[in-house]
Design a protein that fits this description.
The protein is of the alpha/beta class. It has helices at 15-29, 38-52, 57-66, 72-81, 93-108, 123-136, 152-160, 173-179, 195-198, 233-243; strands at residues 112-116, 143-149, 162-164, 180-182, 190-193, 201-205, 219-224, 247-255, 268-272, 275-278.
Length: 287
């Protein structure tokens, strides 16, 4: 089997190896890798080969497949191939819409449940919660956010809530002072989200391919942005079918700007710019 690429490599890496990686990651978490990701796969997985002292991708993949599905190496494999690009208040128009939506829910009274499906390192869920705090005018709004991701490493970062100061450089001075604590001494150059904000979120590992999602409330808003682009259309339909079971008739699904669900119009119906509601044919929210 021919090796991939023309330049010298530290580890043997063949077309077959790449195909096996593609099959394994799709089966495990639904990610559909294209041929353009061959070099990325090599770059990210060579760290695991070095850690395990293996000399080829064939050896690594054989080792991986000998492990039970709940083995730590499978999680390391998944973490390595998961792409995490995020920032505070990314795609800002969504937070304007969210503020309007939460304002209406505030007027009705009661508790509000929210869900961020692809949490990454935490900037998105904290942006959601900052928005909620601003709507209610308090660091203790009647809001709970469920923040999930398949990558355990980024969940740890989000749970700590500690970031380089540069990550919040684009925020207003008011937001910086109200929602973050600036590090001093050995923590100079870092910021931490305030404990009150951290207390509003529950970080949890979740594979969107799981047969069901272990949560009972009906979510008023679901952020599932820039994650479906890694799945093919049949997989997107499968995931959307489960997500809408956690949404009510008035719930909103916030999606990435490059994601389009015309092929799933029986599941979700567009209601704005990268914004969807549960289609009437999709049925009621699960309990």
């Amino acid at each position: 089997m021919a090796a991939i690429g023309t330049g010298p490599r530290d580890f043997e890496y063949t077309d077959r190896d790449f195909k096996v990686v593609c099959d394994l990651i799709r089966k495990r978490v639904g990610i559909a890798l294209t041929d353009s990701k061959r070099d990325m796969v090599y770059s990210r997985l060579t760290r695991r080969l070095r850690t395990l002292g293996l000399s080829s991708f064939e050896d690594y993949l054989a080792h991986l497949q000998r492990q039970p599905q709940d083995d730590e190496e499978w999680q390391q494999f998944t973490n390595a191939l998961t792409t995490n690009l995020t920032s505070f208040f990314r795609e800002g128009h969504h937070f304007e819409i969210l503020a309007e939506q939460l304002g209406k829910l505030k007027a009705k009274g009661g508790h509000v449940d929210l869900w961020c499906c692809a949490t990454s390192t935490g900037e998105e869920p904290y942006s959601i919660l900052i928005t909620a705090c601003e709507v209610w005018g308090t660091l203790k709004p009647p809001v709970r956010l469920w923040a999930t991701d398949v990558d355990t490493q980024v969940l740890e970062t989000g749970s700590r809530g500690v970031y380089p100061f540069e990550r919040i450089a684009g925020l207003s001075e008011e937001r910086k002072k109200k929602f973050f604590l600036r590090g001093t001494g050995g923590n100079d150059g870092l910021v931490r989200v305030k404990p009150a904000l951290r207390e509003l979120v529950e970080f949890q590992t979740l594979n969107l391919l799981d047969s069901s999602y272990p949560r009972s409330p009906e979510f008023a808003a679901v952020f599932c942005r820039n994650v479906m682009i890694y799945f093919d259309k049949p997989m997107q339909r499968e995931i959307l079918s489960k997500i809408v079971q956690k949404m009510g008739a008035d719930s909103l699904l916030y999606t990435g700007h490059s994601e389009n669900y015309m092929h799933a119009s029986d599941i979700v119906a567009t209601c704005g710019r990268s914004l969807y509601r549960r289609a009437s044919a999709a049925g009621g929210a699960g309990r």
